[in-house]
Design a protein that fits this description.
The protein is of the alpha/beta class. The protein has 7 helices and 4 strands, in the order E-H-H-E-H-H-H-E-H-E-H. It is elongated, with a radius of gyration of 17 Å.
């Protein structure tokens, strides 16, 4: 089971003093691997850079935000063709971990946005995200299983690691 953690953990979990303890807390929850979605952000940013660098007169709406995509689909369907044809970082990272660990692994995205739950249902195969947990749900699980930073040692994200994608939030 693979956890994909949104880069905004530092903003949400400011009470946790070191991200490496956060990673270990997830391992204590039962995750086999913990990946930083900052890597997916780096991949997606590269694709967006190529898209805008080859400007041919068509204007694109960045499609990283699932609620924004849903809004356009429901209320502005005439703009659907302007959504950038690039998956969001969650989906990009899911593809990477399925290549690393095989299509049979279970992928759980952990992030701030409840809209990611609907987004995960849009994809299958190598792009599938099996489950989405919000930070609120994760906090409740930490409490339920009595997992606290003060009793945890360090661990680090699994490779590949993100670079500038950690600045995404």
């Amino acid at each position: 089971v693979v956890a994909l953690v949104d880069p905004s953990i530092s903003a949400e979990f400011e009470d946790i003093t070191d991200y490496r303890k956060f990673v270990k807390m997830l391992i204590e929850m039962g995750f086999d691997y913990v990946h930083d979605v900052a890597f997916g952000v780096d991949l997606v940013a590269k694709e967006y850079n190529e898209l805008v660098s080859n400007f041919l007169g068509k204007y694109y709406i960045f499609s990283n935000c699932p609620p924004l995509v849903s809004l356009i689909e429901k209320y502005y369907p005439h703009l659907i063709d302007n959504l950038a044809p690039i998956v969001n970082p969650m989906i990009a990272n899911a593809q990477v971990v399925r290549e690393l660990y095989g299509e049979g692994c279970k992928v759980v995205y952990i992030g701030p946005c409840i809209g990611a739950k609907e987004e995960a249902d849009r994809f299958a195969g190598k792009m599938k995200v099996d489950e989405v947990l919000t930070f609120t749900e994760l906090r409740a699980m930490f409490d339920e299983y009595n997992i606290k930073e003060s009793t945890i040692e360090f661990s680090d994200f699994n490779e590949p690691r993100g670079y500038k994608g950690s600045l995404y939030p």
